[in-house]
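Researcher: I'm preparing a figure for a lab meeting and need a structural model of a single chain. I don't have an experimental structure, so a prediction will have to do for now. The sequence is pasted below. Please return the structure as tokens so I can convert it later.
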Amino acid sequence: MLTNEYLQRVYAEVERRDANEPEFLQAVREVFESLQLVVDKHPEWEKAGLLERFVEPERVVEFRVPWVDDAGKLHVNRGYRVQYNSAIGPYKGGLRFHPSVNLSIMKFLGFEQILKNSLTTLPMGGGKGGSDFDPKGRSDAEVMRFCQSFMTELYRHIGQFTDVPAGDIGVGAREIGYLFGQYKRITDRFDGGVLTGKGLSFGGSLARTQATGYGLCYFASEALQHLKGESFEGKTVIVSGSGNVAQYAAEKATQLGAKVVAMSDSQGYIYDPNGVDLQKLFDIKQNRRARISVYADEVPGSEYHSGCRDIWTVKCDIALPCASQNEMDAIGAQALIDNGAIAVFEGANMPLTPEAIELVKSNGLLYSPGKASNAGGVATSGLEMSQNSLRLSWSFEEVDERLHGIMKSIYKACYDASCECGQPGDLMLGANVAGFLKVANAMMAQGVV
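Model: Understood. Here is the structure written out token by token.
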């Protein structure tokens, strides 16, 4: 509940202006509730209209994306780029290709990205973009034509010192390759730092593919050890989703001694009491691009269940929601609590509803928001930008070591901020406050812009 008059007033104005953007309103309210503990100490923020500027994107670009499928039929999708805040560096954030994409989701993701990028300690502002195009079931040629049309508009709004997009849901190595090729073709420049998540043969970074999932587990390991004296060793884990983040979160959790027993896609989930065979899963998802139900057809002893939300009814010690926003509601959270789970670490962006977060926290489970625990992906994107600027490549081990160090520093920043606010161990509070303060200081120093 918002009690601070300044926060109440700014949020009321956001509600009035953006009444039809529920995901964005949810993200703003969550951050504002954390900031109540620090706003009173900074009366200069209200005088400078800091929060009014913080919640408003610096620029929103919306455009049409016409393309032709293999049968010669014309399609028109919507493209977006929300350039939210550049106080600490060029806009940085992924591109999402998914039918659910709309302006509310783009703004919520861009808003979250500001704080996430701030927590990495790297000089990156916040942004996000994408389209309601669905690459699933499309041929490589169709995806290429869509990406080329999308970049034909987007190219004029990005650059290594302006805005650096990356991948997100529906945008992997294939899509980034097509996007970069079209950017290079239009601009006649090999601007390596303009996109991250590139292939290794043209400026990509080792460990970038694994970074978000690995980073999630590095953050979780630090929090488990420091706050509960626990580790992944011997624990049963649920990982929702089966995309890039989920795959490598499952891999790293397994390497750390856990047993991953359930994973999902948008249609349903698999349960394997023996532990998910990750090589089989990688083949199904990376090579065959098939539904996760195929796993149950091919692995004896495993089960497939329709409906992905019921994955939280599987008994586990640690939950890693890595699919999409608001995937865990109060019913799912209560199921985890009833089954004795000890922790929930977000791998996706805002995967828990506010009601689920309240249940998890009030019942003593360790909880971390995605802006902290899934920041490994954008952190490694920042490392890719550094390598592009230096015209060199670091080894997998070098990047992984830097990633591990960044995730430990993010945990420390969150924990230290929670202590300063008088609520030690509240990592959501700590992440919001620590991320915001750095951006706020930069905005104040740069004047009313």
